[in-house]
Amino acid sequence: MKKRMIAIALLILAGIALFVFVSPLKSHKAVSQQDLRDADFLDDKEALLYFSSSADQDAFGGGKSYALFISQNGSLSSFKMKGLELGSAKVHGDSVMLEDKNTIYTIKNGLRSHKRGYQHTGDSAGFLQNTDGFYTLYNSGYDKKGDGYRSELYRQMDGEWKKDVIPYYIRASGFHNGAIYALIPTADEKGYQLLQIQADQKKLTYHIITEWQYREGASVESQLAVDDQAVYFMVRGQKARNLYQMVKINKKSGEVELHDIAEYKNDEQTIYSSMPFSFKRSFFPYDGHLYFIDGFGKGYKIDAKTGKTSTAFTLSRDKMKADFREITQKGSSLYFFTYSYNKPAYIEQYSLKTGKKVKEKEIGKVKEIVTPKSHLKLYDFEVMKGF
């Protein structure tokens, strides 16, 4: 009897030891605003995810969002906020910006929050070098005081947030060298105007560069990519419904060029499947080229001057089946986040120079936050220093 009791005790101790060795490596911790005020909070963080419910879930106050911080040891910290459809989470150096429907949070040596008017739909966000602060842009809806649509821009200047109104609906936007570029519908809604918004000066100014007419049924399939010479974006259906083209607009002359990029089998399922899984991130500039990633995970490399296209890489087929997928580019690397319900999440790193996968990391506790009943969608993904 005594030997049996000793054996049972040893089994219990062994179980405890196994739990201690296995479970803490990939833990989950819900953090509060007080935790974010810790000046060292960001020190070991290497990736940031932004999940939120959609605007309809927030109609009666039930919306929510989460910023998920992934540490170098694979552990996960979650910060819960109110919801914001298409909201952003942004990283610049040792600074982070988060947002929900009525608050902007910034983290740098602690936490600061800014209450603002209600927003129901985000558009894009970034960092202004001249003002050493973030900006965030919203599609705010119809103006209650007028007949037109309005978008609102919040800019961090001298450490404080400044609000400006842009009296247009913004279909897509991009940022380069202190300016935000936006596609806004023409009055007859048969084309788009390219608007340049000079955002890095105290007084906001904007002007129209040119106008582009599109064919009925054509659709914009990406945010804007911008370099010193031109603004670029992807469209489908301008020439044929199964053909993706790159629109290139010269910033000085307003001249518009179209370049054929990718053609697919002309059937409904293939056309639907080819659509980029990330409107925000599927198209970006790097080192004199543009990169476009389609719904099959195929990455195209496009010469910015000539439009000549080649295949750069293909994302993992198994990972492309995931319930949640998002990409982000940092320098010469592309990062691919994937997660399927009740399974571990992963981040894969690809080299834009070689097209090869160079690293993969598992994140185990996303399933504790993002469940089928949570109604959360993935709206942003950023890689921080040290990944």
Automatic annotation (TrEMBL):
Highest rank taxon of the organism: Bacteria
InterPro entries in the cross-refs: Quinoprotein_ADH-like_sf, WD40/YVTN_repeat-like_dom_sf
Protein name: Uncharacterized protein
Source organism of this protein record: Bacillus inaquosorum KCTC 13429
High-level lineage: Bacteria, Bacillati, Bacillota, Bacilli, Bacillales
